[in-house]
Write a sequence for this structure.
């Protein structure tokens, strides 16, 4: 029997996902690998939200897709507390995945493309129930209930996706995700495609639902300002690795990794008095994690980099001896640097 602490829903350890880079069409030769996720570990507790943040291409979506086993991991364990007990998603057999995934559902970024335009809302929201053999007589009532739960009128179930706004479509996506009573929601940039004015409404809905239903979230975003509002803990990723993970207020007020501080500088109004402009650090495209990086992957962009930084890969270690779980950083100089953050939300 697999074990983990009672209050933990998801415990990911040493997760790796490498994609092969292949040449040509015939006689495929593997030229190398994209290390989309490279030795990532984190824990998500029941009823809490872990934010996963970083620039486009750093591996966030790959983590979510591997956790739900849309991708097979290259290495690592993914312990998940399903209603039938703790399972390792990394090793789960294909025949068991369907049953386990009742308890783990995804919400996607794009509410336009994730809803089939030819299906009425009723059929879209009922899809997961149909897949599990729930009869129509039961699911029709359940769809009405779900629509109410996400703040939509039940009679909307007869309409098609085109008659809804972006925010309403995302509510429909949330209703579908909730259809089978999951305990864990993997939300991949769920508000990134929405107008700023609508973002707050959807985030509020997610908060309300979490309270009402005791949901646990893995919340992915490239935007640190969105994440603060909703998360208990935040992990910052850079090129396939977590570079800092901390309780939410500590991460914002006292970042210990230069990349976190740089990302915070990209948040409007972030610390206008800072002596260096963190914003300057994060411009330009993030590289691809193909080559074997010898030292810290962020070193080439880091204003504090020293020769040591190019020599060894920094481990993610605690910066607080009193409360080791409260903040961990993968910077050799995490305890020495005094980095600007942003004050209270
Ligand atoms: N199916 C795939 N095949 C090959 N490479 C991929 C695939 N999916 C993602 N990648 C690569 O893995 C890296 C991480 O991508 P992704 O997880 O989508 O990042 P994010 O969600 O943070 O923007 C990128 O370099 C991306 O090009
Ligand atoms: Mg993504």
């Amino acid at each position: 029997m697999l074990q983990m602490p009672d209050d933990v829903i998801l415990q990911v350890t040493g997760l790796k996902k490498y994609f092969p880079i292949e040449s040509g069409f015939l006689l495929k030769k593997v030229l190398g690998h994209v290390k989309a996720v490279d030795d990532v570990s984190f824990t998500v507790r029941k009823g809490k939200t872990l934010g996963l943040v970083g620039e486009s291409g750093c591996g966030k979506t790959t983590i979510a897709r591997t956790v739900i086993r849309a991708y097979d991991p290259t290495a690592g364990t993914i312990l998940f507390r399903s209603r039938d007990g703790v399972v390792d998603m990394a090793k789960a057999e294909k025949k068991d995945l369907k049953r386990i995934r009742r308890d783990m559902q995804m919400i996607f970024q794009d509410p336009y493309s994730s809803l089939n335009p030819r299906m009425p809302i009723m059929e879209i929201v009922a899809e997961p129930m149909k897949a599990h053999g729930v009869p129509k007589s039961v699911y029709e009532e359940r769809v009405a209930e779900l629509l109410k739960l996400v703040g939509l009128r039940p009679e909307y179930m007869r309409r098609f996706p085109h008659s809804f706004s972006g925010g309403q479509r995302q509510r429909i996506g949330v209703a579908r995700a909730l259809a089978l009573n999951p305990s864990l929601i993997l939300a991949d940039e769920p508000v990134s495609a929405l107008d700023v004015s609508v973002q707050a409404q959807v985030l509020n809905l997610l908060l309300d639902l979490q309270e009402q239903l005791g949901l646990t979230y893995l919340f992915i975003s490239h935007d640190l300002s969105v994440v603060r509002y909703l998360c208990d803990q935040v992990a910052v990723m850079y090129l396939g690795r977590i570079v800092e993970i901390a309780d939410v207020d500590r991460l914002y007020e006292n970042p210990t990794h230069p990349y976190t501080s740089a990302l915070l500088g990209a948040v409007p109004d972030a610390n206008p008095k800072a002596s260096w402009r963190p914003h300057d650090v994060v411009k330009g495209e993030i590289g691809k994690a193909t080559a074997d990086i010898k030292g810290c992957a962020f070193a080439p962009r880091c204003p504090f980099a020293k020769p040591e930084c190019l020599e060894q890969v920094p481990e993610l270690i605690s910066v607080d001896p009193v409360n080791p779980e409260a903040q961990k950083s993968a910077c050799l100089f995490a305890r020495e640097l005094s980095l600007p953050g942003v004050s209270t939300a």
Summary: The two ends are 43 Å apart (CA to CA). The chain is about 25% helix and 25% strand. Residues 267-285 have pLDDT under 50 and may be disordered.
